Amino acid sequence: MKIATFGAGCFWCIEACFKDFKGVIDVYPGYAGGQKNNPTYEEVCSGNTGHAEVAQIQFDEDLVSYNELLEVFWFVHDPTQLNRQGNDIGSQYRSVIFYHDEVQKEIAENYKQKLSLEGVWSNPIVTEIVPISNFYKAEQYHHNYFELNPQNLYCQSVVRPKVDKFRKVFSDKLQ
């Protein structure tokens, strides 16, 4: 089993997409990259802890490659928005890849460079690629948030459209 950690805006969105991907064993919403030990959601949302909202993904490398996970990562958010995703604004919503080893670092940097050279987005990619220094699981009520709270207005207007688009494009790679 391997681990990947991605920040792509609100962790409810990325958890909901990755959890149904073939080869993914589990997805944990959480916080990474900040200075405070065991931060709360409220502390992270203040923007003062330095953490990003992330999804930490446990995956079976025999069933899904890190490269395939990166393909989903780049697809489910706009990596050209600095410290935000849409109306979610703040460094906690930054686009970031926390690599767990030098192989992940190289793959992520090569993928980012390839997308930049191909001009996939009209604006420059601002995604950070940094070593994982810490990870704290989010409070229990954040786990499976989209699935457990479909009536939530944020889930209806932001998460559902992303998840529906993801499921349509990656239908052949879902569990």
Description:
The protein is an alpha+beta fold and 175 residues long. The protein has a single domain (2-173), classed as Peptide Methionine Sulfoxide Reductase, Chain A. Helix content is 35%, strand content 23%. It contains six helices and eight strands, in the order E-H-E-H-E-H-E-E-E-H-E-E-H-H. The strands form two sheets. The chain has a six-stranded mixed beta sheet, with helices on one face. It has a two-stranded antiparallel ribbon with strand order 4-5. Helix 1 packs parallel to helix 6 (153-169). The longest helix is centred in the middle third of the chain and has 17 residues, at 102-118. It is globular, with a radius of gyration of 15 Å. The two termini are 17 Å apart.
Q: What are the main properties of this structure?
A:
alpha+beta; Peptide Methionine Sulfoxide Reductase, Chain A; two-stranded antiparallel ribbon
What's this entry about, in short?
By secondary structure, the chain is of the alpha+beta class. Helices cover 35% and strands 23% of the residues.
Please outline the helices and strands.
Blueprint: E1 2-8, H1 11-18, E2 24-32, H2 41-45, E3 52-59, H3 66-75, E4 84-85, E5 88-89, E6 95-99, H4 102-118, E7 128-131, E8 135-137, H5 145-148, H6 153-169
Parallel strand pairs: 6-7
Antiparallel strand pairs: 1-3, 1-6, 2-3, 2-8, 4-5
Helix pairs in contact: 1-6
